[in-house]
């Protein structure tokens, strides 16, 4: 029996790195993905693929959109249960809600249970790859990597490091942060579909000694990812200036410790100076735009035009639980509204690129994820553009990525997800679709 599978639907993806989204999108309205051994073997018109591969088993998602799995480049696994906590901006939100919640992840059983909840939420929303902060506890990173491996999801994650300005019971030290991070890199980085990210939480919660210890690791392991927070909130920025008086600005702290480089993703980047933007661009660092979080925590409005001016790659991210949804569709919808306020027109196609191939290119992973090129892993999401009353009333073409996707970003969420596939296997499916997948 053949293990070839043919998936039928309206297939849309960006095969190349681009900023010409209308020209470089590849679209097959009645399209197909041929999958073999968990990878894309061919992408094209359904009928043509069917003729060439009559032995393939067919899964029919006609009139649904088939898109590469979404890539969420900044979210916090131990904050799943504190989404939507009232009334605070960043620093008091951390003290009042975040740190107490993260303490629970010292319990390995709890972390394992929550890893399952977290990844299920991601998959329900079509997110097949996350770049994830765990808690300070090494066991929480292990729990997440184990759970992601069970689902065969390509995952980037790192143990948070913090040795000051948070409760004693949530602190590591410079030495343990270095040793635990190194052990996690050795155990998980490049193993299966897992990758490690060095994760100093942000400059205020790491002493210079801890930053130096992590900076050594950044130099020693130059292919690991790095993730942290940068320039999110005015009080935070003023605090960093007092804590690191020898650094000319916030970015300079991370520069001093060798953390500004390719594969380094800086969450938020809302209040950067032109000099900081320019240096980010010159050093190949990435900005993660987290719109629902930035609005929820009252942090400010991200400036996409500035990022473009200084050639800083921008990815999109939920920032759960500062962010208020696991849905990358909703995230894109809120990004659109913030861009409106900043006089930047964020098209649905630019948004789709940023959720898929753009993020993969920025992270150096586009040989594996973000597209339907031959040889890429078969990670994809199937969306129903007519999933409810309001979307069913629309008269535009449901198989057009531009029309249907824009409506989905304004009106959609996980209810639009028909199925999510990872490495050629269905890992989430709506109840009513189980027949199609049986
Ligand atoms: N800055 C430092 N830690 C955090 C966090 O957990 N969430 C957000 N949004 N900002 C941070
Ligand atoms: Zn964050």
Automatic annotation (TrEMBL):
Q: Copy the pathway line from the protein's UniProt record.
A: Purine metabolism; guanine degradation; xanthine from guanine: step 1/1
Any one GO biological process: guanine catabolic process
**What cofactor is this protein dependent on?**
Zn(2+)
Under Enzyme Commission nomenclature, its number is 3.5.4.3
Q: Report which reactions are catalysed by this protein.
A: guanine + H2O + H(+) = xanthine + NH4(+)
Q: Do you know which Pfam families this protein is assigned to?
A: Amidohydro_1 (PF01979), HUTI_composite_bact (PF22039)
**The keyword Phosphoprotein is annotated on this UniProt entry:** no
Keywords on record: Hydrolase, Metal-binding, Zinc
Provide the Aminodeoxyfutalosine deaminase/Imidazolonepropionase-like composite domain boundaries: 31-56
Q: Which molecular function terms from Gene Ontology are attached?
A: guanine deaminase activity; zinc ion binding
Q: Which GO terms describe its cellular component?
A: cytosol
Superkingdom, natural source? Bacteria
The free-text function statement in the UniProt record for this protein reads: Catalyzes the hydrolytic deamination of guanine, producing xanthine and ammonia.
Similarity comment text for this entry: Belongs to the metallo-dependent hydrolases superfamily. ATZ/TRZ family.
Q: Which protein are we looking at?
A: Guanine deaminase
């Amino acid at each position: 029996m053949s293990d070839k599978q043919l998936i039928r639907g309206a297939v849309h993806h960006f095969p190349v790195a681009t900023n010409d989204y209308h020209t470089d999108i590849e679209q097959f309205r009645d399209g197909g993905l041929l999958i073999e051994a968990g990878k894309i073997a061919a992408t094209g018109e359904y009928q043509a693929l069917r003729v060439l591969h009559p032995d393939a088993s067919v899964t029919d998602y006609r009139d649904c959109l088939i898109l590469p799995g979404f890539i969420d480049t900044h979210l916090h696994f131990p904050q799943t249960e504190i989404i939507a906590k009232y009334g605070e901006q960043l620093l008091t939100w951390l003290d009042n809600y975040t740190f107490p919640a993260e303490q629970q992840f010292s319990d390995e059983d709890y972390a394992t249970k929550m890893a399952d909840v977290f990844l299920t939420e991601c998959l329900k929303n079509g997110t097949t790859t996350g770049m994830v902060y765990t808690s300070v506890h090494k066991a929480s990173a292990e729990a997440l990597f184990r759970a992601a491996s069970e689902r065969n999801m390509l995952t980037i994650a790192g143990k948070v490091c913090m040795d000051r300005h948070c409760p004693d019971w949530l602190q590591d030290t410079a030495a343990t942060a270095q040793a635990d991070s190194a052990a996690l890199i050795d155990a998980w980085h490049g193993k299966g579909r897992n990758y490690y990210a060095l994760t100093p939480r942000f400059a205020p919660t790491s002493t210079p000694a801890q930053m130096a210890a992590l900076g050594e690791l950044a130099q020693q392991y130059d292919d690991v990812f790095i993730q942290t927070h940068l320039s999110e909130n005015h009080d935070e920025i003023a605090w960093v200036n007092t804590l690191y008086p020898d650094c000319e600005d916030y970015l300079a702290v991370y520069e001093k410790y060798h953390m500004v480089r390719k594969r380094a993703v800086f969450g938020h980047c809302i209040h950067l100076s032109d000099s900081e933007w320019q240096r980010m661009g010159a050093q190949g660092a990435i900005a993660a735009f987290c719109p629902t979080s930035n609005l929820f925590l009252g942090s400010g409005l991200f400036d996409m035009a500035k990022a473009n001016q200084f050639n800083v790659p921008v990815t999109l991210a939920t920032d759960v639980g500062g962010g208020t949804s696991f849905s990358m569709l909703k995230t894109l919808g809120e990004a659109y509204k913030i861009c409106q306020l900043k006089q930047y027109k964020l098209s649905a196609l630019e948004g789709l690129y940023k959720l898929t191939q753009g993020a993969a290119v920025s992270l150096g992973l586009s040989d594996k994820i973000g597209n339907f090129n031959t040889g890429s892993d078969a990670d994809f999401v199937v969306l129903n553009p007519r999933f409810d009353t309001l979307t069913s009333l629309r008269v535009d073409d449901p198989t057009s990525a531009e029309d249907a996707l824009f409506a989905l970003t304004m009106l959609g969420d996980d209810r639009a997800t028909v199925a999510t596939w990872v490495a050629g296997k269905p890992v989430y499916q709506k109840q009513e679709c189980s027949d199609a997948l049986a």
